């Protein structure tokens, strides 16, 4: 195989990478080898090609020697392909008339024999110089970015992202499944380690969401379908009927007072069933929007059709709408922030702790409600029989660090447990035992809070409780829950009777995380949480461009981290909106005319970029979605798909030359 | 389906009543049961504590003998035997080297170990093969009003839970319900009875046994039903000793669940080995036998 | 004058290979994963009587303090109820490790000499090896003869009850083909390349 019209004028550059490459590959020998190859008019080695002077070499040579092609042998293209393409472009050449050879990771770093490594480098660069001759100038495609953003989930992470975007004057659709925003944070009493009241710091943010003209708030709604790609997503949102007109209801609660059920008798979702509500209810006093909802499962109108509907009568603003129907809204957005949060571990999965079996075994979240002044007991921590507990045991790591349930550390439970130790002590004066495996207090001011709890006299026992049982073996255990635990620092087993047990339950992915993952084409890590693009350097982005993560849907975290991640996601969104367009790499595929429409390629594409054109009956590619993975090109039975930068003659030339001296 | 019956040493000794009542129940339910000819000791925890390889060989010989019977499964009423056979089978399966050694050893004895036959406990067989409906339909004398504390012990559900919930098994509860009895909520249903420690470090063993007996009486049980000869022996035989040491709040008849099932199915008391119990079963006999 | 023993350990008192050996012989690959949470001890019904809690034994074994791990009463008090193994948050099969430690303690002669538990284990296995079955009555008799004759006398009332109820027969149980079994056991030991149990 030869070139139709003589070899193009090619510049070759080999990088020493300090000693990384030069120690194992005889750089000078490779340079001299390249010099002899057809078309090579410049062959040069340099200590650090990625440095400014290194790049300047390329730029100058393109101009001086009228280079038509450039090959750089250096590190992985993942690191510096963009750098060198930039240099080529600045030299006035199309950046795709360039090819990069990896002689560091794929040669110098994996070989010891200098002669063989040098030979391998020679083969590789020869192949690249042959291949680059077949490169064609390519253009990056530009796609506009819709400046609207969808945020899924109205917890603190989603709220914060929405407010950041709103502050910049951008339109946000904030979709929340529950009738109110606020998420888990709205249920907490105090926040560690400062002990400021969660509601006091959260509700102003919730009100700000309500008051923002830039935020479209859809509560009691779920995202159903997402199509499209970065810059141009089409989204369907199903808005469940709350049987109340959100525009006119002001949350005056007249309807609730008037309800045919004189007493609240249905478990309140917000209060975790610790309090009752009526069929028409407000989740909690500071709910946003401040609008009631009617639960059709318990409302007499829906159950029997025979209610006198006093709520309707009581409403001065005519806001009760029994005929309200589900609505599916269609919106277009450019980017999406996923802030769907977490769920707490269900301790019924660990029957040895007696949750559900003994009424005085509570989860940490339930205790948050009990210590809260607006909670079911008005802030009193009481046993189910109404008495004040004299002794309380708090168990760490329930549903965390456990191969039988969830393997990960939920990171916040130690601090939650410490906080609850303080609050319960403050509310009841009880003796509080804290059972921990390792005390993990790694945030700002957290260790100091642990110090404070020790000063306050919390009884710390290092040991994971074996079981919580109700059979006594000593007079002091009568009528108590007995914790059997090894005091591992003392080295013996103890039986500790308490009145109240608090299980500091861990965080886990929401039950529907898999469905959300599929809808968004993102990934999940082994633990089931959504996977960030890079664990260190891209903790907010996902593998799908234009989709970002915020808060605990990505992994357990405390409030400040969730807030920070919400802001980081907003910053990503704003950067893209400011830019106004996205540039797509041109390594995309093209479907040739001889496509038979067999559809083999369509399900294979991991990015859903291929569809069947119903008119032409041929496959068509959405260039904005194509990532250039080449799966379809390899699979096409008739060879009707080609891929830029991986065209047959380019690959053939490369293979042939690599093997030429074998 | 035919079952290869593995009695184990206890069912020929202290646990004779278990064998008698188990076979009586199988008879009443129309099950085909054949004792494995020339079976040897399963090895038990003691042999495993001394020599694992030989313990596995002991178990494998039994399974090889059982496989000759063309039976569908081995049924081992003793929880210790049940676990030992099952654990050995798993280890032989899981570890190629061990499997090879044991197979060769069995061959040297003129037998062949295929490792195909399943090992089952009577609780499993009665609930899942015979079925609760079939049992209910054969009950001639429902044990109405009899409050039973179902005691499973450890080894039928730990470490392997093949037929029941590991933390809160209910198969015996369901069987007893089918027999018309009223199982009480017995929280210590899978807590260890102390095993052979009652014989070796008696004060420790008796303390463990005492805890179980007392809790059963406090839960309002008239009788404890066991499904393992060692558990039954510990709970049944030492009550006098326990009373002397810990007080009289732990006196309660302790029987095999098969003895209760047998009564409900109409088997005569003498065929159920009820005269062999040491704790008093007189009230029980007065009411149902 | 009373001698105060030194409690400190030198690193030379450690067998650094012990944990690896133990993981092999106990078939427990997760010994290294123990986080010392004490769930095992918390659940163990016998931990109330152990000189070292199961957690401490695991730690000593992992660190290579072989003598400490082999000479405690913990491994002998383990009744194999598997409560620890089932609930261990790191899936350490503690029971299997206890078995392995028992076998090693016997081999190395490190078990507590006065304890009847290892005596029972050895008497039991000897009886089964020679006759194919265990006869409980004879086992108990042998045990008490070897350890505590007085206790045997104290048990006469119960023994009598068992005899009259046909639960305690002194007829020695024995399988028919004892030789076949002995061949099987000897071959197994030879195949596995193990020495005879002392």
Write up this protein:
The complex is a heterotrimer of chains A (662), B (289) and C (198). Chain A is an alpha/beta fold. In chain A, 27% of the residues lie in helices and 23% in strands. In chain A, α11 (413-428) links the parallel β21 (391-398) and β22 (431-436). In chain A, α4 packs antiparallel against α17 (648-658), α5 (156-167) runs parallel beside α14 and α11 (413-428) packs parallel to α12. Chain B folds into two domains: 2-120, Glutathione S-transferase Yfyf (Class Pi), Chain A, domain 2 (Up-down Bundle); 141-287, Rossmann fold. In chain B, the strands form two sheets. Chain B has a four-stranded parallel beta sheet, with helices on both faces. In chain B, α2 (44-50) crosses α3, α4 (79-94) crosses α5 (96-108) and α6 packs across α7. The longest helix of chain B has 17 residues, at 202-218. The mean pLDDT of chain B is 95. With 198 residues, chain C is mainly alpha-helical. The two termini of chain C are 39 Å apart. Chains B and C meet through α2, α3, α5, α9 and α10 of B and α6, α7, α8, α9 and α11 of C.
